[in-house]
Design brief:
12 strands, binds 1,3-dihydroxyacetonephosphate, binds iron/sulfur cluster
Length: about 300
């Protein structure tokens, strides 16, 4: 049953000819009014396909909304709370990428989509956790500067012959860093019939203890196709709401309840309603940054087909 506020948002969305895109970590209430839910890659692909809408409302963190803007420079992209930043993206500056390129002139630069616009503008190609291995293997150079997530870099390194050099070297997600070996052992003991699925932003030693390391979109398809019925989910807590809505006949347990991405939750129904009403705050990406990063985004979309 939708609340009055949710109904008001849906009516406003229709009146404004808007579409709401939301990341899998959004709250249940926001997931319920979204037109499209997905992981970073799915949201990029969807953003590129939007033709018939005047406004895109993006419920996710800054780098995701900016990528949607880069793919749709002429469309109005709005965000309920413009301060919703991904701290990991802010761990790598454009200047640091330039310095790394000077140090390794023969290397290609592959950046996680969780990067600032100024860093993406210096990249050859982007990747998400859903396509990182495929993207890295599609690069012709043997040495790859990879950042900002060191754990995703470790995940890729283990599965490729390419040399992966992390930049800046200590980039990480504070949410996925919370998972410990003890959490995995406790979950194994408590839920002996469950499979443990972890996001590749978790430390490599935690990924290794799990049954699978997957992007949030990858988790959804893995679980849909699995003959198991119980899963321990090692990612942000609201992913479980997406799973319950899509695959309600299976059972999910959070690896830890404290895995909350605080900035993802800055978006509330009230802010979503107001942003639709006022058609602001709007995502603005400086023209030079947008133009320079577009080729890296498009190269990723092409290589991940
Ligand atoms: P996904 O692309 O797997 O949804 O990951 C995005 C993210 O920020 C994970 O923390
Ligand atoms: Fe960034 Fe981590 Fe939040 Fe994902 S979960 S948006 S990587 S802080």
């Amino acid at each position: 049953m939708l609340s009055d506020l949710q109904k008001e948002i849906i009516a406003l969305k229709e009146e404004k000819n808007a579409i709401i895109l939301a990341h899998n970590y959004q709250s249940k209430e926001i997931q319920e009014v979204a037109d499209f839910l997905g992981d970073s890659l799915e949201l990029c692909i969807k953003a590129k396909e939007i033709e018939d809408k005047d406004i895109v409302v993006f419920c996710g963190v800054d780098f995701m909304a900016e990528t949607a803007k880069v793919l749709n420079p002429d469309k109005k992209i709005i965000i309920p709370d413009e301060t919703a930043e991904c701290p990991m993206a802010h761990m790598l500056s454009g200047e640091q990428v330039i310095e790394a390129k000077e140090k390794y002139p023969d290397a290609a630069v592959c950046l996680y989509v969780n990067s600032l616009g100024e860093a993406k503008a210096e990249a050859d190609i982007l990747c998400t956790s859903g396509n990182a291995l495929k993207i890295v293997n599609s690069i012709k150079e043997d040495t790859i500067l990879f950042g900002p997530d060191t754990n995703l870099g470790d995940f890729v390194r283990e599965q490729t012959d390419k040399e992966i050099i992390p930049i800046p070297g200590d980039g990480h997600c504070y949410v996925h860093k919370k998972f410990t070996e003890e959490d995995v052992s406790a979950a194994r003991e408590k839920y002996p019939n469950a499979e443990i699925i972890i996001h590749p932003e978790a430390d490599k030693k935690i990924q290794d203890l799990a049954d699978a390391a997957l992007s949030t979109g990858g988790m959804l398809s893995y679980i849909r196709n699995s003959n198991k019925n119980e899963f321990v989910i090692g990612t942000e807590i609201d992913m479980i709401n997406r799973l319950k809505a899509e695959i309600p006949d299976k059972t999910y347990y959070p690896l830890i309840k404290e895995a909350v991405c605080e900035t993802m939750k800055y978006h509330t129904l009230e802010k979503l309603r107001d942003c639709l009403k006022n058609e602001s705050p709007e995502i603005i990406v400086p023209k030079d940054i947008a133009e320079k990063s577009l080729s890296a985004v498009e190269r990723m979309l092409e290589a991940s087909k």
